[in-house]
Amino acid sequence: MGLLSLAIWLPIAVGLLLFALGRDDNAPTVRWVALIGSLASLAVTLPLISGFDIQTAAMQFEENLPWVDRFNMRYHLGVDGLSMWFVPLTAFMTVVVVLAGWKVITDRVGLYMGAFLVLSGLMIGVFTALDGVLFYVFFEATLIPMYLIIGAWGGPRRVYAAFKFFLFTFAGSLLMLVALMYLYFKSGGSFDILAWHKLPLAGGAQTWLFFAFLAAFSVKVPMWPVHTWLPDAHVEAPTGGSVVLAAIMLKLGAYGFLRFSLPIVPDASREWAWFIIALSLVAVIYIGLVALVQADMKKLVAYSSVAHMGFVTLGFFIFNDLGVSGGIVQMISHGFVSGAMFLCIGVLYDRVHSREIAAYGGVVNTMPKFAALVVLFSMANCGLPGTSGFVGEWMVIIGTVKLNFWLAMLAATALISGAAYTLWMVKRVYFGDVANDHVKAMSDVDAREFTILVALAIAVLWMGVYPKPFTDVMNVSVGELLKHVAQPKLP
Description:
By secondary structure, the chain is mainly α. It has helices at 3-20, 27-50, 86-100, 109-128, 132-141, 143-153, 158-186, 193-196, 203-220, 229-236, 239-264, 266-271, 273-292, 297-316, 321-352, 368-382, 388-403, 405-430, 437-440, 447-465, 468-486; strands spanning 60-68, 73-79. The model has no long low-confidence stretch (mean pLDDT 88).
């Protein structure tokens, strides 16, 4: 078993063990098993960083074994510069979620922690699968633990939100399954994704496949106008569910564009790029304005996520190295920043049991350490230079200038709206006089909460000040992808 298999199956095995230990009288043991299991899973991913060769675009740490011989399905795993960083990011955010739920979750603790560990392994499977069926199995299986997390530990409308989340994302994937079967027969009976990249396809077939993949990946991102499930899911999900949903699960759809849409149907991707760019700009501009009028902090950050992910899809479909690399950097940064924003909302909710902005005011007076960290994450959410939020957005905007100045100017308006809705929230929640007795009674973050937020703050600042280790990993792979997309694949 190689490193990638360990990264996938170790957290899943620990998660299944936690299901078996799931009685509430075992809660202390369950929490420690979950923490040790998540830390071990993170440790397994670290050699991927140290051992990754940034000079090649080839797949690394590959595992390729027979799976279902009759249909030529293979257990084929690998990472390149497009996918490598998402493996340790997923494992790291799983540790964060386990620690975040340490005291808050008191009911069915084993099931809660186990669901996140299983979900972690499945998401890593999506980022590493190089067999079409294996990818689809992991891609769809991630819905099950997240559905349970929202439905079992969510808010008052959790069942509605869980069903909406499941139906939207599952329905979008059905066309992708048909597309995978078409590619299987067209390639002579192979589910090898890398072989599909070299497959010459007619223009009509490419267009059909492009929209089949778009149906699956746009819902997952989510892109406008199929984003409506996301605010409901975030509002009703427990804090850990919102963190993983924003930090990792949204990236599965964006990653799908890089692994399927661009390399398999490059001609259709170029032909319909204007359509994706238009949808991305609507998300960046319109959804940013929608975020301005939100009274619920979770909804505000949820709409903010849609706007930020609009930068990702915009960067991918302007077809230059700055745009694509900027989109990937934005995905990684958004994982840290959005995860931190939802954790901070969770800290407040644990104390006051309200997500309404109007329920707070003057929090800095009672929680100074916490407020300082929140301001840092909020500045990153605005795209302040020196934070990770700036790097990806700036790269995408500069890449868009190469394509069209006016499109870049429209995209840059997100920096204004992002600052407006984020700072408006910060001003009303954290600054000014203490607004009520609930805020007056609040205590500052404890050692556990402080450690989690500081770890995320270090990641946000490190990536903002010195993004080179992140961009070096992806440069060669992005270059090869753009060369591939530039070459017509028509038969």
